[in-house]
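Board notes (copied after class):
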Amino acid sequence: MKKLKHFIFITAIFFIVSYGCDKETIEYQTTEGYIIGFDPCEGDVKTSNRGFIIACNNLRDTFVTYNLPDTIFAFPQYLFSNYIYSCMFPDSEYLNYKIKFKYRFANENEKYYPLCLAIIYLWEFDHYVRDRQVILNEVTKINPKK
C-alpha cells in the first residue's frame, strides 16, 4: 500500500511538471518602418545598443528599440548633435532610414532605461515612445525611393 501511494505521488508530480506549465511561445510581427530618432539620454556619443525610435504604419505608431544591429546603417554624427533639445532626426532625414523587421514588445524584465541627465529635454521622447520598447529580429535595410 505504501508503494502504491509513492507511485501515485510520483506519477502526479510527473504529470504536473510535464503538462502543468504552458510553454511560452514568442510571436514576432513583421512590418516595415523608418528610424526617425534616438534616445537622447545616450547623448551624441556613438555606443552600441543605442536606442532608436522607429515609426511604422505611415508614421502613426512609434516605439523604441535598443537592439538595432550596428551594421544596418552608418548614421552621420550630426544627427545626434542636438540631443539635449530634440531626439528626432531632421525632417529631411525621416525617410532615409527604412527597415523591414520582425518585432515583439519587450517584457518588463527586458526593458532598458538608461540614466539620463536632468538637462536633457525628455518630453518629446516620452511623447513618441510612451514606454513601448520592442525587441527586433531579422532586420533588413530597405533602400529609400528618392
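Comment from the instructor: The longest helix spans residues 2-19. The chain has one domain: 29-142.
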